[in-house]
Design a protein that fits this description.
Elements lengths: L1 H4 L5 H108 L11 H80 L23 H5 L19 H27 L1 E4 L3 E4 L7 H26 L3 H10 L3 H28 L1 H8 L2 H13 L5 H22 L4 H27 L5 H30 L12 H29 L1 H8 L2 H12 L9 H29 L1
Helix pairs in contact: 2-3, 3-14, 5-14, 5-16, 6-8, 6-13, 6-14, 7-13, 8-9, 8-12, 8-13, 9-12, 9-16, 10-12, 11-17, 14-15, 15-17, 16-17
Length: 592
């Protein structure tokens, strides 16, 4: 008892910690149990899913075997039925022959036994008459045999006729199915041929229609966005996307197709760059090669005068381009008529909207050229890929790549460097010219998107004609309505003519129209010879060539560029070329 009493009293401490330890241990055991159950259940679920997939595969295999067996059984049964019918026919014929033979033998036996039973032995007088009775009996047997054979042959003939009618019906059915298959194949071949012809025609048309500045075209008429890297010819010639030229004659052996295309695209770029230089001469008096002074026929710093110059040019371009469209695509007017009567308001909005944005872009770029010079204005115009890239992502799902994003940033930097000396200048005209160039580039980006949407349902040639006509109508309406709204808005649209410069203005309008047509046609022939991707890369030299021609032809403070501006022009040109090169590289796997 003393030993028991001398033990340490730890019951109180154990009672204080025992419930918590038990609870913790129970919690740990429950967690372990839960984890083990979860693991087992997950393993069971995985195993059940595996077995389910195996069972599904087995069911599919059994169903396919059942179908095969059913088909095989039907085929076997049909073959067995035919074989059984043939066996029955042969057995029936054998049975009929045996029956006839037995009947004949029986009748002949009766014929021989009948005289012995009914009559006494024939006398000498009766012997001549015996053959006659035998002949009668023989005739009766033969007649019965003949009747039986006739009935059998009739039955066989009836069966053969039924078989023949059934076979003829099946053959007629097979012939009908063959005719239907031939008709379906004929329709399918004609549709494929038509689609191939359309694809060939569109591949010839689309390279010049993708954008307005000799840009690359997509490989098909899919609603892909216009390539951001190619500068639009339409912007430099003030026309919608150019239409495909007629099939060119085979190139001479002295020059390859690539060389001819290179000459054509360079000539087109040169003509369209001269177009911008002529616009600068119209708006500002310039020294041509430092020899004589020319220009300043009308002030292009105002909206009304810019619209007037565009109207004079449209008076030359619209009629001639309408005739060219009829030669290139004979169905132009029929499709335009269908377009007007289709009541497809979405298509009408996209086509007419593209013409409106191009009109707005042209009017503003004229103001910009007169304000900051052709080189700076065209370089700022090339900022439109910064706008088309997000628009293409929104409308067509064409997500810009990282290279395109970097190039867009580079183009923006080049535009800033090009316009920076003009921005820090004190003249309001420079700031106004840079602002109009930026708005012009934005309007031109919307024009490209609207034009690409229009190409989904309408051929590019009718779209171009409608865009030309839209620009012509808008110029006429603007010149009529803007002076009437001037007292209401209080804004002077500046529609004023210099009486001494009217002849020069008209002559310059003719020159602008001629340069537009020359650049347009040479661009189409060049794209035909060397391809749209290569042509777009060459056409990317537009800003550099425009700035160079403006400085050489009309040297002066307005066309001279500072070092930072030259760097900006080069950056923009390289960026646009990089975008075109990316498009060419991306199109190669699609074509292959």
């Amino acid at each position: 008892m003393e030993s028991l009493n001398n033990l340490p009293n730890t019951s109180d401490s154990d009672q204080g910690h025992h419930p918590e330890q038990v609870l913790a241990k129970m919690s740990q055991d429950l967690q372990q149990l839960q984890q083990s159950l979860v693991v087992q259940l997950s393993q069971d679920v995985s195993r059940l899913q595996t077995e389910k997939s195996k069972l599904m595969n087995d069911i599919d295999a059994l169903q396919s075997q059942r179908q095969d067996l059913t088909t095989h059984q039907e085929t076997t049964l049909s073959q067995q039925q035919i074989a059984q019918q043939q066996i029955w026919a042969s057995q029936m014929a054998q049975a009929i022959a045996d029956h006839l033979q037995t009947l004949m033998v029986h009748r002949l036996g009766e014929m021989h036994q009948e005289p012995d039973r009914s009559e006494p032995a024939p006398t000498l007088a009766d012997r001549p008459t015996a053959p006659v009775g035998q002949d009668d009996a023989t005739y009766r047997v033969l007649n019965s045999l003949d009747a039986s054979l006739n009935q059998t042959l009739t039955s066989v003939k009836r069966d053969l006729s039924s078989y023949q009618s059934s076979l003829s019906q099946q053959l007629n059915r097979m012939q009908t199915m063959q005719q239907q298959g031939e008709a379906i194949l004929e329709v399918l071949v004609s549709r494929l041929n038509q689609q191939l012809q359309d694809e060939v025609r569109r591949s010839q048309v689309r390279p010049a229609d993708q954008n307005g500045y000799m840009g690359s075209s997509p490989s098909s008429w899919s609603p892909s966005p216009p390539p951001e890297g190619s500068v639009a010819t339409a912007y430099r010639n003030g026309s919608p996307a150019p239409m495909a030229a007629p099939a060119p004659s085979p190139p001479s052996q002295a020059l390859s197709s690539f060389q001819l295309g290179l000459i054509m695209v360079l000539g087109s770029t040169l003509a369209l760059s001269l177009h911008n230089v002529v616009v600068g001469i119209i708006g500002n008096e310039s020294s041509i090669f430092n020899i004589w002074s020319l220009g300043g026929f009308i002030s292009l710093s105002s909206l009304g005068n810019s619209i007037l110059v565009l109207l004079i040019r449209m008076l030359i371009v619209v009629p001639l381009m309408t005739l060219i469209a009829m030669v290139i695509y004979p169905k132009t007017w029929s499709e335009i008529k269908g377009f007007c009567l289709s009541q497809d308001y979405g298509l009408m909005r996209s086509v007419v909207g593209s013409g409106f944005f191009l009109f707005l872009s042209q009017v503003l770029i004229y103001i910009s050229i007169a304000g900051v010079g052709p080189g700076v204005a065209v370089t700022i115009l090339f900022m439109y890929p910064i706008i088309t890239a997000p628009l293409a992502w929104i409308f067509f799902g064409d997500r810009p790549s990282w290279l395109r994003v970097v190039v867009m940033i580079a183009i923006f930097l080049g535009v800033v460097l090009t316009s920076w000396p003009r921005l820090v200048g004190t003249g309001e005209l420079s700031i106004w010219g840079i602002g109009t160039a930026i708005i012009s580039g934005i309007a031109f980006a919307f024009y490209l998107i609207a034009m690409q949407i229009s190409f989904r349902k309408l051929h590019p040639v009718p779209v171009s004609v409608i865009q030309f006509f839209t620009i012509f109508v808008l110029t006429c309406l603007s010149l009529i309505l803007l002076p009437l709204t001037s007292p209401i808005t209080g804004f002077d649209y500046g529609l004023s003519l210099n009486p001494q410069g009217r002849a020069g203005l008209l002559a310059s309008g003719f020159v602008l129209g001629a340069l537009t047509l020359v650049g347009y046609l040479m661009n189409n022939y060049g794209v035909r010879y060397m391809g749209a991707a290569r042509a777009s890369i060459i056409a990317s030299s537009g800003p550099v060539l425009t700035a160079l021609l403006a400085f050489v032809i009309t040297p002066g403070p307005r066309t001279a560029l500072a070092t930072v501006q030259i760097i900006g022009v080069l950056i923009v040109t390289i960026g646009v070329t990089a975008m075109n090169f990316e498009k060419m590289v991306m199109q190669r796997p699609k074509k292959s």
